[in-house]
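Backbone-to-sequence.
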């Protein structure tokens, strides 16, 4: 099957397909998949019609595969003959068959994404797969501008050894690589043009281990990130201890700093053979240290921290005092789905400390609203919680009139956002009231949390 992203067109390729009814222009993204969802059976798909059609789609730039098997040769060969395709994406793919590098050396790619997803076959030859991926990356390294790669597939050492002269953005996803942990500055040493660096490593939620230290203060880090990459603008780190020496190396040009504690989405039969990946939300004490470091970044416009607990008025006050230029602020409790308590703070006491943030337009925050599940409907949110969220949003909006949007953490009871992540965002848009007095907060749907199942997007930065 293939789906034309953003245009509503769908093309089904079966064994009986004679041709593919794709328009010759206007389609920039094409999704190719062999099953509707993880529980549905794999389809018997003939990819030849799509392969023939690729050369007739000059506007097609981005091709995304979500396949159970190794990417088909016929499609990879067609991509190699389609110079207009410059973004290739593999979700939940496997690469343990024969080498595919002869296809990739012919491609004109600028961006590549390879992730493993949550469900993988037990018979994958992992060692062969890692060799094949390393070979593919080596063949594309000189031309890639953006790379999103799974930590389950590529070690720190592999990335360190390859030269990436044009790479602007690196997103390291899924789980922390097994084996040797290298300092972050060493991993990106051969990426001189890097502007966006993200370690989006997810953890299994039921296991608690110390966070990974990517540059120990007791270790001789040969080079500092602030020295090797002074122009780095966006830095994301997940499941990292706040005492990591990387916080002493933050480049002065940073505009975005995210210190997260990501979790895997929920699996069926979770916990049987799950590796013990570390999960490390930030304590309030350590959060104050991070905020103090962030206060020295005069270009910072976005700050995100995943906390052990809900944010306190004192913590919010520290943010406002240290980071006056923020436009986007995210302070969330990583395990909010386990909370059953009412907020110990009034909404006014949480909003008031943020008044110095004159440019803040997007706030994402955890506030406790008590038990979420409706008593007689297992998969619904209590009306009192929804009402409380709207009332809370309007308190924030009245005290912070510059706010355009505000989001609150919500347990993803019924997969409100279409993902299997434990949490979602309850998203509200702030409007001026008709009488010109109190602002109105209007529910505008659910927004996906940082999820294992989807690419991680950099939020746009706009001028105040």
């Amino acid at each position: 099957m293939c789906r034309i992203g953003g245009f509503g067109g769908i093309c089904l390729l079966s064994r009986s397909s004679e041709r593919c009814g794709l328009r010759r222009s206007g389609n920039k993204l094409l999704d190719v998949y062999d099953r509707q969802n993880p529980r549905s059976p794999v389809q018997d798909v003939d990819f030849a019609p799509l392969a023939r059609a690729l050369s007739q789609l000059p506007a097609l730039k981005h091709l995304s595969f979500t396949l159970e098997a190794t990417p088909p040769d016929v499609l990879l060969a067609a991509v190699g003959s389609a110079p207009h395709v410059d973004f290739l994406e593999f979700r939940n793919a496997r690469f343990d068959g024969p080498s595919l590098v002869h296809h990739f050396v012919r491609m004109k790619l600028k961006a590549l994404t390879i992730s493993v997803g949550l469900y993988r076959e037990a018979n994958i030859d992992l060692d062969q797969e890692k060799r094949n991926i390393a070979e593919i990356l080596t063949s594309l390294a000189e031309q890639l501008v953006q790379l999103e790669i799974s930590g389950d597939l590529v070690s720190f050492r592999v990335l360190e050894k390859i030269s990436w002269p044009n790479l602007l953005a690196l997103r390291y996803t899924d789980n922390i690589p097994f084996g040797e942990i290298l300092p972050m500055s060493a991993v990106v040493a051969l990426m001189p043009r890097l502007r966006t660096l993200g370690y989006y490593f997810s953890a299994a939620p039921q296991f608690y281990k110390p966070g990974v230290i990517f540059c120990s203060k007791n270790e001789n880090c040969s080079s500092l990130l602030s020295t090797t990459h002074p122009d780095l603008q966006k830095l994301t780190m997940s499941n990292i201890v706040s005492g990591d020496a990387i916080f002493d190396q933050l480049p002065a040009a940073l505009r975005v700093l995210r210190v997260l504690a990501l979790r895997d989405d929920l699996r069926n039969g979770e916990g049987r053979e799950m590796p013990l990946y570390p999960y490390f939300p930030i304590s309030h004490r350590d959060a104050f240290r991070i905020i103090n470091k962030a206060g020295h970044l005069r270009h910072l416009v976005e700050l995100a921290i995943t906390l052990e607990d809900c944010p306190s008025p004192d913590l919010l006050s520290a943010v406002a005092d240290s980071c006056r230029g923020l436009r986007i602020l995210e302070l969330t409790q990583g395990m909010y789905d386990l909370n059953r308590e009412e907020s110990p703070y009034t909404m006014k006491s949480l909003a008031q400390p943020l008044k110095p943030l004159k440019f803040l337009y997007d706030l994402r925050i955890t506030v406790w609203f008590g038990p979420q599940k409706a008593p007689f409907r297992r998969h619904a949110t209590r009306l009192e919680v929804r009402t409380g969220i709207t009332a809370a949003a309007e308190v924030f909006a009245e005290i912070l009139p510059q706010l355009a949007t505000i989001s609150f953490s919500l347990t993803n009871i019924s997969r409100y956002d279409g993902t299997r992540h434990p949490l979602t965002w309850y998203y509200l848009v702030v409007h001026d009231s008709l009488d010109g007095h109190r602002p109105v907060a209007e529910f505008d749907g659910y927004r996906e949390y940082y999820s294992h199942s989807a690419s991680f997007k950099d939020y746009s930065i706009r001028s105040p």
